[in-house]
């Protein structure tokens, strides 16, 4: 059975097009290529865990919901902080983690991922496919 492709929303289509050939590392290229595939071909009504709070000292987690919606949050020890909800991948990558109260440094999610060279990103936790 062939997966039906989800049409990218304009902001995400533009983001993926703009990033092509401008990746800062092989890990970034892999991240964008896999995320484009996931958004277009892997619906996630039961959530797709992109990064667990256990995979980084900042406690940041990233969850894809449905096709292209995202929840970004922070859970360190017993403390949960209010999640940021993005309606598209573009907005998720541009959220300022300091303004959300997640980290002390003013970084977008994309800058934070680049700083850690995408360490801790997982691609095989779409609970609809497990």
Describe how the helices and strands are arranged.
Blueprint: H1 10-19, H2 26-41, E1 44-51, E2 60-66, E3 69-76, E4 79-86, H3 89-94, H4 109-115
Antiparallel strand pairs: 1-2, 2-3, 3-4
What's the quick description here?
With 130 residues, the protein is of the alpha+beta class.
Fraction of residues in H or I helices: 25-40%
Average pLDDT level: 93
- Structural class, please? alpha+beta
Low-confidence runs: none
Percent of residues in β-strands = 15-25%
Span of the ends, CA to CA: 17 Å
Helix/strand order: HHEEEEHH
Radius of gyration: 14 Å
- What is the general shape? globular
The largest β sheet comes out as: 4 strands, antiparallel
Count of DSSP helices?
A: 4
Task: Describe the structure in your own words.
The two termini are 17 Å apart. The chain has a 4-stranded antiparallel sheet with strand order 1-2-3-4. The protein is of the alpha+beta class and 130 residues long. The chain contains 4 helices and 4 strands. It is globular. The protein has helices spanning 10-19, 26-41, 89-94, 109-115, and strands spanning 44-51, 60-66, 69-76, 79-86.
Distinctive features:
single chain; 130 residues; alpha+beta; four-stranded antiparallel sheet
